């Protein structure tokens, strides 16, 4: 009886499907967690950022873009949980920095503080290695700022009318510096001369910082530069401000008149400055960078410091910043042609 029962049991086991056969059950159930682990690992998104970030600044230390870049780097370091360092890459009217950023890996770890030359330079240079619309992903417009016409303390001109007379009397010998060939200061100086009826000798620098230093030292007569690069020297009396190029006075220098109110209504040259990444940077990274940047710029210690330096804080979406860049890229070619400016 016992032998017959054993034969029946073996026959029954042999008839079962393979996964449930005797001895296979522990293997089948034991394998399931091992198969699931890689699937879960693939579903987990890697942490970002997992390495330090760099912000490319296209001018020398001390200029307004450099001041802004370092302010943003400090403000983002905490929220992103990684160091954010500034790298100054000067030369070729900022084109070296623009091309470096455009060719960088679109991983959100290389960012750019861009400004007007990004959209001006394609009209100024015969050969250009980037497209301002196609090759960059706008993150946030950060600030706007007027240019300021400043002169060395030894210059006779005490106001814009006096500067105009001096430039006319010297028949173009008065030197007017800018932060570089094709910069907003360079073009603004041309437009100012056309509006006021005088000519000057243009002296280009690699950024507003070095130009301000030479103006303080008396090596050049005058300079048209973004206000934050010169404001501390103006306040300390080392150089004199004659006019700002916005349509209204700057709250940071309320006693300095505008070019428009000095007898030339409608004259305006205002620079924009913003944060960009290489085109192709993933959307979630761009969204986070925009949110973190906006939050950082809204903090009183950041906002008040930038306003005190002459910046006007901008606000808006990534889409509005992209619209501004497209509009600027379309606007400048006609102005450059009218000014006659060209950089080879």
Automatic annotation (TrEMBL):
Gene3D superfamilies: Bordetella uptake gene, domain 1, Periplasmic binding protein-like II. Belongs to the UPF0065 (bug) family. Keywords: Signal. SUPFAM superfamilies: Periplasmic binding protein-like II (SSF53850). The keyword Signal applies. The keyword Signal applies. This is Tripartite tricarboxylate transporter substrate binding protein. PROSITE patterns: TAT (PS51318). It holds the Pfam family TctC. Residues 1-23 form the signal peptide.
């Amino acid at each position: 009886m016992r032998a017959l029962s054993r034969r029946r049991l073996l026959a029954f086991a042999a008839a079962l499907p393979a996964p449930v056969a005797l001895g296979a059950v522990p293997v089948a159930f034991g394998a399931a967690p091992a198969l699931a682990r890689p699937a879960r690992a693939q579903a987990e998104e890697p942490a970002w950022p997992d390495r330090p970030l760099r912000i490319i600044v296209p001018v020398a230390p001390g200029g307004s873009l450099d001041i802004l870049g370092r302010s943003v780097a400090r403000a983002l370091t905490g929220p992103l949980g990684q160091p954010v360092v500034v790298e100054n890459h000067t030369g070729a009217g900022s084109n070296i920095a623009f091309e470096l950023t455009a060719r960088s890996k679109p991983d959100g770890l290389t960012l750019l503080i861009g400004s007007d030359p990004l959209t001006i330079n394609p009209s100024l240079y015969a050969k250009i290695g980037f497209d301002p619309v196609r090759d960059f992903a706008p993150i946030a417009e950060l600030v706007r700022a007027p240019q300021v016409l400043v002169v060395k303390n030894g210059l006779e001109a005490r106001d814009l009318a006096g500067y105009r007379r001096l430039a006319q009397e010297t028949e173009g010998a008065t030197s007017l510096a800018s932060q570089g060939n094709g910069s907003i200061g360079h073009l603004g100086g041309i437009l100012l001369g056309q509006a006021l009826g005088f000519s000057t000798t243009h002296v280009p620098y690699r950024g507003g910082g070095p130009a301000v230093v030479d103006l303080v030292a008396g090596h050049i007569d005058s300079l048209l530069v973004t206000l934050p690069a010169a404001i501390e020297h103006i306040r300390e009396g080392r150089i004199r401000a004659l006019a700002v190029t916005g349509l209204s006075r700057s709250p940071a220098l309320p006693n300095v008149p505008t070019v428009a109110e000095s007898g030339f209504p409608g004259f305006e040259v205002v620079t924009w400055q913003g944060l960009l990444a290489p085109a192709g940077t993933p959307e979630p990274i761009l969204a986070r960078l925009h949110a973190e940047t906006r939050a950082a710029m809204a903090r009183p210690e950041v906002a008040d410091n930038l306003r005190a330096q002459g910046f006007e804080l901008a606000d808006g979406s990534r889409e509005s910043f992209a619209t501004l860049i497209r509009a600027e890229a379309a606007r400048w070619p006609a102005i450059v042609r009218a000014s006659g400016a060209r950089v080879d």
